[in-house]
Design goal:
The chain is an alpha+beta fold. The protein has three domains: 56 residues, no CATH class; 110 residues, DNA polymerase, domain 1, CATH 1.10.150; 178 residues, hpI Integrase, Chain A, CATH 1.10.443. A hairpin with a 7-residue loop joins strand 8 and strand 9. The chain has 14 helices and ten strands. Helix 3 crosses helix 4 and helix 12 packs across helix 13. The strands form four sheets. A three-stranded antiparallel sheet has the order 1-2-3. Strands 6-7-10 form a three-stranded antiparallel sheet.
Length: 373
């Protein structure tokens, strides 16, 4: 909640945001800027320092050139303090794998760098690079440049989001026949993995959320399940490359949610052995990589083409919409902050659904012709 007159508020993601005004010479007017901190005091202190830098008279001579690598490393240090470890590791890996060698020595100064966007766009045009990675590279580069522009008062170019190339991709959902074969297999199974797949198809939970599910998250009386945590394998600091299984808060505040459970799911969960704290693990959460490997074996056994576990989530969302669930309800069950995300990314009408809708249109035209007669 904002404190009166200070323009400092606590965001839904747990961070504190402090806003202030500075004069933008390019626009010829004052604009708002935001500073973030892990606490009210930290945000207020960071804002005071930023306002002090903004109020200080600028040098008469052009500012000294700043290497892109310097701006990137400082930006990453700030990101590490105010973002989830998984988010920080994603940005760090994108920078070190895709941007460091390409742009690290590039100098940012008062003079614009028209060749810098070209280098990034050329890199994004490589064959075999997924749309997700392309968007992440552009997003990371934009944030580093924005940070450099504000921190060092250098001139930074404007990057546009890369246009989708629409490559040939595997279907984002299971077909009805594939779902039929997969459901027949997991319903008859007695192992934890088949139960996890069943739960994924009936609730749309993320793989990392399923692996972190505890028995205490299930309310048997009210027939609900609470999503309170997630587990991921992340890189850890050290002389040699090493990863560790880390349990963290859900992806966002909206991802912390309660999902109603149906009879088939409850019956299957009751049959699982209650060994340990975790439903699909023991005293420790199950590694998502282990679940993914077991899922591939189930797909092969069911005669279904290999797909990622996340396809269960997409299939669930599409099934819900095709069966009449409203988008807002589905969005909350999936843990999305915006209905647009649900509709644009997770709903993929099947050909059967399209035929059904087109058939309804034919019936409608038939009624019109009948009335005209």
């Amino acid at each position: 909640m904002a404190r009166h007159g200070e323009n400092i508020r606590k965001r839904k993601d747990g961070r504190w945001e402090a806003r202030y005004q500075v004069f933008d010479a390019d626009r010829g007017r004052k604009v708002y800027r935001s500073i973030y901190g892990s606490s009210y005091a930290a945000a207020k202190e960071k804002r005071a320092a930023a306002m002090g830098r903004a109020a200080a008279p600028g040098p008469s001579a052009p500012c000294a050139p700043v290497p892109f690598s310097q701006a990137a490393e400082e930006w990453l240090r700030e990101i590490a303090d105010r973002r989830k470890p998984s988010t920080y590791m994603k940005y760090r890996n994108i920078y070190r794998i895709h941007l460091k060698e390409m742009l690290g020595s590039c100098l940012l100064s008062d003079a614009p760098k028209p060749d810098l966007p070209d280098k990034i766009y050329d890199h994004l045009s490589q064959e075999g690079m997924s749309e997700s990675i392309r968007r992440s590279i552009c997003c990371t580069a934009k944030q580093i440049l924005a940070f450099a522009g504000e921190r060092y008062s250098v001139c930074v170019p404007v990057l546009k989001r890369p246009e989708a190339r629409h490559p040939t991709e595997r279907p984002k959902t299971f077909s009805r026949s594939e779902q039929s074969r997969l459901l027949a297999l997991v319903r008859g199974g007695s192992d934890r993995c088949s139960a996890a797949v069943l739960l994924g198809l009936y609730t749309g939970m993320r793989l990392e959320e399923l692996c972190a599910l505890k028995w205490t998250d299930i309310d048997w009386e009210n027939r609900t399940l609470a999503v309170n945590r997630t587990v991921q394998r992340l890189a850890v600091a050290g002389p040699a490359p090493k990863t560790a299984l880390m349990e963290t808060a859900p992806k966002s505040e909206s991802s912390r949610r309660t999902i109603p459970l149906t009879d088939p799911v409850l019956e299957r969960l009751r049959k699982l052995p209650g060994e340990g704290d975790y439903v699909f693990g023991t005293e420790r959460p199950l590694d998502p990589r282990t679940m993914q490997n077991r899922f591939k074996k189930l797909l092969k056994e069911a005669g279904v083409a290999q797909r990622n576990f996340h396809v269960c989530r997409h299939s669930f969302a599409t099934n819900c919409i095709e069966n009449g669930m409203d988008a807002k309800t589905l969005s909350e069950i999936l843990g999305h902050s915006d209905v647009k995300i649900t509709l644009n990314r997770y709903v993929h009408p099947t050909m059967d659904a399209k035929r059904e809708q087109m058939g309804m249109l034919s019936d409608f035209y038939g009624q019109i012709c009948g009335q005209a007669a």
